[in-house]
Structure formats: C-alpha cells, structure tokens
Q: What sequence folds into this?
C-alpha cells in the first residue's frame, strides 16, 4: 500500500502559510517581467490544450488557481487540487470574484483521489520540482488522464541548475527557502513512457534566469535579448523552465 510523503516536507509547510498564499501571485507574477511570464505560460497552455469548452480538466497543485481559472473562463469543467487549504482559499476567492465555477478540493499529487481516466486533461505546474516523489506524481497524472498531461520543470541544462544548488546549500544551512530539483529531459520522458504516454510538444521559456530579467524589469529588454538567444539556437538547448504536453499512446 502506498503512503503519502510526510507533510513536514517543505513543499507542504511553505504553502500552508497564509502569508505565502496571499503574496504568491505578486511574488511570482508581479511587475512587468512577472506579467510577461504569466502571459507566456497562459499562451503555452492554450496552445497545448486547444479547445477547452465542456472538457473535464484537472489542475494538480493548483495553488491560487491561475491555470484552473484560465480554463474555466473557456468553459471547461475544472477541478483544482492542492495540498494547502490556505492556497485553495485564495483560489476560491478569485473564482467567486469572477463568477467562475471551479471545484477546488484538498488533495495530494502523489495519490489523487479520482478514478482512472476521469479527466480529459491533467495539468500540474511547479509541482515536480518540489514533490518528494516526482515519478509517482507523473504516474498519478497519467492514471487519471484520458488523453493529455501537461507539466513543467526547471531544466538541468539551464541556469536553473546553479540556482538549485545554491538554494540547497542555503536550505541545509537553515535559510527559509525552497530547495527545488532540476530535471534531465530524458528522465521526464522515461517517466511518461512508463505510464504509456509520449511527449507531443515542448515549450522552453528563457535562456537566462527569470531572476535576472526581474532585476532589469523591462519586457522589451527581455523579449529582445531572449529573442536573440533563440535565433542562435540557445533556447532550444538551454531554455528553462520547460513546459511539455504528453499524450496517451494508442495501443
């Protein structure tokens, strides 16, 4: 019998903080570069899923509900799952403010309380990088999805690798931070393959760290610089975070 990870893990305790829940969107998507990141993410999700009206969609690790609300606006039947009631409270407030119908429930990405193939699409953003057992999370996403699974992760080939090492050092020294992991593309592809899914398309965001672009604080600067790096082929190799859509194989 499988058991869920201990909720003493930082990925649970950090987001159980009401202050964290209230400030999450501003810290992640505030300012001109944050708004650009949010717009790019929304566009990537829209392109990967396509038409959403009346499709059952699951958003795992929904947090404050950003992706869930995006699909609800398009007419999807959306369920949002998160381990933090504090984050879910913010998501419910946002849905109510927009008059959107989204089912938000507390749950764990490692052990989803839904039948096999209950949803057409399962999405999980900013979860694998923090999850204690990320392969189990992918297996669960694939189990509950009839067709598509979308996840994102920081690439081991990008600058995120150095930031990840630095955060782990600081966390070990007692700093209050989130020591996330990075991933090799082949490991992610292998985990999907084990569940009968194949990667259909990939979107890579920035070559340089988002923290660097936030420091500059200019969308024009970011788009110009990253556009130049893309034209010489660096984004295809070093772009991070990576967002991908995997599709269930036909047997």
A:
């Amino acid at each position: 019998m499988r058991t869920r990870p201990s909720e003493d893990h930082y990925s649970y305790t950090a987001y159980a903080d009401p202050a964290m829940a209230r400030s999450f969107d501003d810290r992640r998507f505030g300012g001109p570069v944050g708004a650009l990141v949010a717009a790019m993410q929304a566009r990537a999700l829209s392109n990967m899923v396509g038409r959403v009206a009346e499709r059952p969609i699951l958003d795992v690790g929904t947090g404050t509900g950003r992706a869930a609300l995006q699909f609800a606006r398009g007419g999807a039947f959306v369920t949002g799952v998160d381990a933090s009631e504090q984050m879910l409270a913010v998501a419910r407030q946002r849905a109510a403010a927009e008059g959107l119908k989204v089912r938000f429930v507390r749950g764990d990405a490692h052990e989803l309380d839904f039948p096999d193939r209950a949803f057409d699409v399962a999405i999980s953003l900013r979860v694998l990088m923090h999850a204690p057992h990320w392969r189990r999370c992918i297996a669960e996403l694939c189990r509950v999805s009839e067709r598509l699974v979308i996840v994102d992760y920081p690439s081991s080939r990008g600058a995120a690798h150095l930031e990840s090492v630095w955060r782990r050092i600081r966390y070990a020294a007692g700093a209050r931070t989130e020591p996330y992991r990075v991933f090799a593309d082949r490991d992610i592809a292998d985990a999907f393959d084990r569940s009968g899914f194949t990667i259909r398309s990939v979107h890579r965001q920035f070559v340089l760290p988002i923290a660097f672009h936030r420091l500059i604080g200019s969308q024009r600067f970011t788009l110009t610089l990253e556009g130049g790096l893309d034209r010489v082929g660096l984004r295809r190799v070093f772009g991070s975070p990576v967002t991908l859509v995997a599709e269930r194989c036909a047997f």
User: Anything to note?
Assistant: The beta strands are 56-60, 77-82, 102-106, 119-124, 145-153, 197-206, 240-248. The CA atoms of residues 43 and 183 lie 23 Å apart.
